[in-house]
Amino acid sequence: MVNPKNQAYGDDLLRLSYHSCQFIINLGESMTAMNAFYAQSGGVTAVINATACGVIETARSHKDFISNVYAGKNGIIGALEEDMIDTNLESKKTIASLRYLPGGVFGSARYKLKGIKENRQEYERLIQVFKAHNIGYFFYNGGNDSMDTAHKVSLISKEMGYPVTCLGIPKTVDNDLPITDNCPGFGSVAKYVAVSTQEAAMDVISMCKTSTKVFIMEVMGRHAGWIAAAGGLAKKHSDDAPHIILFPEIAFNKKVFLKHVKECVKKYDYCVIVASEGARYADGKFLAETGTKDAFGHAQLGGVASVLAEMVSQNLGFKYHYAIADYLQRSARHLASAVDVEQAYAVGKAAVEMAIKGQTAMMPVIKRISDKPYKWEIDQAALSRVANKEKMLPKKFIAKDGFSITPACRRYLLPLIQGEDYPPYSEGLPKKVQLKNISVPKLLNNSFVV
């Protein structure tokens, strides 16, 4: 929504149009370097800052094309509100340290731009800010919705006579972006879930004779069961945990579920369950739907572990414990996959390299060459093929009983959790580097309120 005070909005657009035309003329004559805008979007990951590092370090090595990288404070909102961070003022050492930091160092946001026809003013505002700050490159680091936004910005920027080179950079713990073999951020979550499942199971089995019989771990995954599947990596032998995995792709059947729990306890004396937050009934209703929606319009989920625990207690009488991995699974940088860190940096680096070659409305993707030894390379895909599309867990990855993964799934997942990339420690804790985060001076007279 535009602030009522934005009376100068149209005037600023007219005033800047002359300067932008003059700039484009000059650009054609002298190839003057432009600035880049980088933003982090949606739920962050343990390695999204490694991608930021890849973007900034690579941009710094191409000063003839990119003068500076401005980072959006709180994601795309930073561009709309002209609230950006000058990364040029950060030292080389500080930028390098981003590889080891979880969270989003510049701030992320669950903010979805509507369609161009629905809210054209937001897109016009973006171009207005880009013009004012000589921004010719837009790097949007996010998931499905973010790729859609990057694609739309590339279209409207051309329409408005100020073409912006727009690159989407993949990021999502859900691993549900199509075309790319996997998504940076997922490998580390998969490693965390697999390790946590294995360790929790060892705890439960040591006490199950006289104490807890059922342990449930709730993991993320609204529509796709990639993260839940990762828990299956802990099961190396038939009697190992997890004994039950609940995937969003498999309709939940209460009767069958309880029967399986009872059989597991009878056979092994305990039962470990990994449950996706997106577990749902045959009619599509989530087991733990709260009735509210998030900023992207998705149903707010949470609490499937408690729903299952109550179900087990009331119907089977077993003592239980449960854990909700929640933010821990996506922020555990101390347990990040080395492969994931490397790939997160690589897509950031590739995005810049693609941009300076003039490629736009594209996304760097990871292409798997072989499983063993694991080999991969960076490829590319048009944003139109990625935007608003989801990649579900293939049927061939889910066992016939609907409660475990197949050998094919294991072959896919295992390479993604390989290697350790520990952050530097100080006094027993990972070092927390503090950025200066100095704001870029505002150049526009009007304001914009999100």
Average pLDDT reading:
91
Low-confidence region ranges: 1-30
Dominant shape: elongated
* Structural class designation: alpha/beta
Main pleated-sheet profile: 5 strands, mixed
Can you count the helices?
13
Order of helices and strands: HEHEHEHHEHEHEHEHEEEHEHHEEHEE
Topology at a glance:
Layout: H1 9-30, E1 34-40, H2 48-60, E2 66-72, H3 77-80, E3 84-86, H4 92-97, H5 120-132, E4 135-142, H6 144-159, E5 165-170, H7 186-207, E6 214-219, H8 226-231, E7 244-246, H9 254-268, E8 271-276, E9 289-293, E10 299-301, H10 304-316, E11 320-324, H11 326-331, H12 338-356, E12 362-370, E13 375-382, H13 407-413, E14 425-426, E15 429-430
Parallel strand pairs: 1-2, 1-4, 4-5, 6-8, 6-11, 7-8
Antiparallel strand pairs: 2-3, 9-10, 12-13, 14-15
Helix pairs in contact: 1-5, 2-12, 5-6
Summarize the structure in words.
There is one protein chain. The chain has 450 residues and is an alpha/beta fold. Helices cover 36% and strands 18% of the residues. The protein has 13 helices and 15 strands. Strands 3-2-1-4-5 form a 5-stranded mixed β-sheet, sandwiched between helices. Helix 2 (48-60) runs parallel beside helix 12 (338-356). The N and C termini lie close together (6 Å).
